[in-house]
C-alpha cells in the first residue's frame, strides 16, 4: 500500500502582522520608547498527522458529543470517518505532542484506522457533508451520480 497523503490538524500561535505593519509599529515604539517584546515572539505551528491512503479531496467535520469527527474522501473513492479527539488534545499539550512526534518520526503520520469506512464509490467524489438534522449521518456524491446517505457515529 503506497501512502500519498495525510490529514492534519494544525494549531498556530504567536502570529504577527505583516512586515510592513511591523515596520510601522517599530517606528511608533521607538518614538514612544515602548519595549513590548511579547508581541514579537516567533510564530509557533503544532501539527498532528493522520496517515491516509491516496490524495484527499474532501474533509468535513462535525461535533458529535464530546468528540470531533472528520469525514475524509480521497482519490481512491473511499470515504472514512476519523475521531479527531486525540489529535485536538495532542496539539494543545506540549508533552503529548512531543511523544506523538517521536512516534511519528519523519514519516507521513501514524497509521490510524478510521472508525468507519465506505468503499462503495467507483471514483472520487465531489460532495460530502454531515446531516444537519441527524448528527450521525453523512451524505456523499460521486462523479458518476451515486448519492449515498450512510453512517452511524461512534
From TrEMBL:
Gene3D superfamilies cross-referenced by the UniProt entry: YVTN repeat-like/Quinoprotein amine dehydrogenase
UniProt biased composition (Acidic residues): 18-35
GO cellular component, one term: nucleolus
Region (Disordered): 1-42
BP terms from Gene Ontology: ribosome biogenesis
Membrane-crossing segments per the record: none
InterPro entries in the record: Glutamate-rich_WD_repeat, WD40/YVTN_repeat-like_dom_sf
Protein name, entry field: Glutamate-rich WD repeat-containing protein 1-like
Species this protein is from: Diaphorina citri (Asian citrus psyllid)
